[in-house]
Amino acid sequence: MKNELRIFCPATIANISCGFDVLGVALDSVGDEMVIRKVSKKGIHIIKLEGQDLPMETHKNVAGVAGMAFLGESDYGGGFEIEIYKKIKAGSGIGSSAASSTGAVWGMNQLLGRPFTTLKLVEFAMEGEKLASGVAHADNVAPALFGGFTLVRSYEPLDIIPIHNPKELFATVIHPQIEIKTSDSRKILKTNITLKEGIKQWGNVGGLVAGLFTEDYDLIGRSLVDHIVEPIRSILIPGFNEVKASAIASGALGCGISGSGPSIFAFSKGEDTAEKVAQSMKNVYKKIGIDHDIHISKINVEGIRKIN
Amino acid sequence: MKNELRIFCPATIANISCGFDVLGVALDSVGDEMVIRKVSKKGIHIIKLEGQDLPMETHKNVAGVAGMAFLGESDYGGGFEIEIYKKIKAGSGIGSSAASSTGAVWGMNQLLGRPFTTLKLVEFAMEGEKLASGVAHADNVAPALFGGFTLVRSYEPLDIIPIHNPKELFATVIHPQIEIKTSDSRKILKTNITLKEGIKQWGNVGGLVAGLFTEDYDLIGRSLVDHIVEPIRSILIPGFNEVKASAIASGALGCGISGSGPSIFAFSKGEDTAEKVAQSMKNVYKKIGIDHDIHISKINVEGIRKIN
């Protein structure tokens, strides 16, 4: 068995419109690289971290914390060295911490001959999410580990449902270079909603899941609606309404906040449309003078993968 | 073209657990019969109504009101005679009014060569629902007209999504002979819910729709949960908790309130289990001395149909 793996750890979109806290998806063209290496020295040792200014101490790093959760339930007597090459910016809203924590546990599991199920890896990786945002949420780590669209049906017990991935679906994600803390973004949410709003939301979740299974792009678009969280959180993202309007006008099926922002995602049918949508989103931020990164990606149906 | 049709109008289960106000399904072994006849005399004429004590005046009868909504948008210059043979008890919670209003408009549409879409027929039939309960809801009329499981994704605009129907899924429905008015049953609902409860509910709606599409019976069962409405409404139904517990103990995938009650439905994989579940549900009402009807049915995938 090999002692070392180099892997690609995808960025992910969580809180997909109506699917707040439950629906996420893995991307293909943006993600980190990691090297995971079996060593005799016990514990998790982060020996390299490039691309972002993040702590390398095991207990302060999401990969370290997730890795320790893994080791805590493993029979393995040794340890792991981890190298992290960040390409996803921390705080961008496309699952930077999830990429690192899932990459660590997925790689470790491979190197040990897969003693744990993918669901169990989600649990370990959630410990990293807890360190990053204070909440052990699963809606980024689940798509990173399972690939494609995933539903977190329940937390107690944890139940992750892989959803079908329409072949022509592409994501465009724009990251305006402003900072929003996940914890702030949580604080402004209302703790109560009306039953009426709830019914609309779960009608759309049902429609979105049905649209994904039947590859009905029009239904996917009609269902990408969020009456509850987006109207509040979008206030924190300058230009959100203009970006969304221009994405839709350029042919996007739907558009919303990625994670807790500030990134904004749009889904399109076909890569050409996704590129037009990207151009229109960029134009908005150029006009109001906000620096931004943009990504166009097909859906990543396999999740984390080995690379050479 | 024929001038007369005899049709079967299925009973339906609405408010399927987590799918409150959005998910319904059509049954196969219980429903009304109707005869719809083209006549030269303008208007809707209910000339026979057997089986239940309900008003026959056009404007007081759900089939009459739905039929008039149909005629109001039709080019047809004549009228229709309607005979209704009720087998579904009014107020039982399995779509008695929906069966009559959908039967009327479906039959009329057939006899005129189908000038209207099925979605348009849903709109006409909703006028009947409005007469019956004060609310123009679509979650019984949609499955009666489309067949199978249907999702009311949105009311404005009206958007009905047919869901896949697992082949081995059977419904057991027990109707305890007590009276609950739909309007009373609506009044006791809370108008606000917590965001946390909402998230659980839409996670389950996503899981239920995914389970139906993938014919994953276990997932269907895990998703048949309602944290919001069932805990409140079940108080109005004597023996509800015992009936539910005995259904699950007998192998049902899940169990909940049909419509606004008092009927209770359970879903099972396979007819044998559905029968065992029926027996266990009956035993509860026998023990506490409440008269009851019971129905075991496969899913009716075609909805209303012609009979000879």
UniProtKB/TrEMBL annotation, chains A, B:
Keywords: Amino-acid biosynthesis, ATP-binding, Cytoplasm, Kinase, Nucleotide-binding, Threonine biosynthesis, Transferase
Signal peptide (UniProt feature, chain positions): none
Main location: cytoplasm
Reaction catalysed by this enzyme: L-homoserine + ATP = O-phospho-L-homoserine + ADP + H(+)
One Pfam family matching this protein: GHMP_kinases_C
Keyword Amino-acid biosynthesis: yes
Domain GHMP kinase C-terminal span(s) in chain numbering: 210-286
Kinase is among the record's keywords: yes
GO MF, one example: homoserine kinase activity
Ranges for domain GHMP kinase N-terminal: 74-148
Cell location: Cytoplasm
InterPro entries reported for this sequence: GHMP_kinase_C_dom (IPR013750), GHMP_kinase_C_sf (IPR036554), GHMP_kinase_N_dom (IPR006204), Homoserine_kinase (IPR000870), Ribosomal_Su5_D2-typ_SF (IPR020568), Ribsml_uS5_D2-typ_fold_subgr (IPR014721)
Biochemical pathway: Amino-acid biosynthesis; L-threonine biosynthesis; L-threonine from L-aspartate: step 4/5
Similarity remark: Belongs to the GHMP kinase family. Homoserine kinase subfamily.
Function: Catalyzes the ATP-dependent phosphorylation of L-homoserine to L-homoserine phosphate.
NCBIfam families: PRK01212.1-4, thrB
Full protein name: Homoserine kinase
Species name: Maribacter arenosus
